[in-house]
Amino acid sequence: MKKWIFSIIVLFAALAGSLFYSKIFYPDLPIESITKREAAEKGEKSISKITKLAEENNTVWYVAQMEQGKAYDLIKEKMEASGWSFIEQNGAGFFFEKGGETLIVNSQMWTGKYVIFSVPNERGR
């Protein structure tokens, strides 16, 4: 009987560890080319910076840690470094302008800790 209980405990621990490692409990990503675990690992490395997740369907996806709204400052800094001037924020959209052209960067809270940004790829337009 003790062997059965021990086996069940070991099996449960292995299953729980597997679920934690795979980040299956995280919300779905709007990106198909990266797993939740990979995105979470990149998010962990994004302390005080914004990190590229993937490029998919003429969109570049970034992740940043929220840290009391700092993620929004990071996307503004990133876009301004690329020559885009911040115009305004309207909800989850950040409006930028460069040379008479407008670019909208959308943000999405992925977890309570990470924000995902979708930036239209300039080369795709």
Structure report:
The protein is α+β, with helices and mostly antiparallel strands. It has one domain (27-124): TATA-Binding Protein (2-Layer Sandwich). It contains 3 helices and 6 strands; from the N terminus they run ααββαββββ. It has helices spanning 2-22, 36-44, 70-81, and strands at 51-56, 59-65, 85-90, 93-98, 101-109, 114-120. The protein has a 6-stranded antiparallel β-sheet with strand order 1-2-6-5-4-3. Strand 5 and strand 6 form a beta hairpin. The longest helix is centred in the N-terminal third of the chain and has 21 residues, at 2-22.
Short description:
Helix content is 34%, strand content 33%. It is of the alpha+beta class and 125 residues long. It has a 6-stranded antiparallel β-sheet with strand order 1-2-6-5-4-3.
Quote the distance from N terminus to C terminus: 66 Å
CATH class: Alpha Beta
Helix-residue proportion: 25-40%
How many helices? The count is 3
Which spans of ≥5 residues are poorly predicted at pLDDT below 50? 16-22
Do you know the CATH architecture?
Answer: 2-Layer Sandwich
Alpha carbon gyration radius: 19 Å
Instruction: Please report the total strand number as a whole number.
Output: 6
Strand content: 25-35%
Structural class: alpha+beta
What's the main sheet like? 6 strands, antiparallel
- Spatially, the strands of the biggest sheet line up as 1-2-6-5-4-3
Question: Which H/E pattern describes the elements?
Answer: HHEEHEEEE
CATH domain fold name: TATA-Binding Protein
| Overall spatial form | elongated
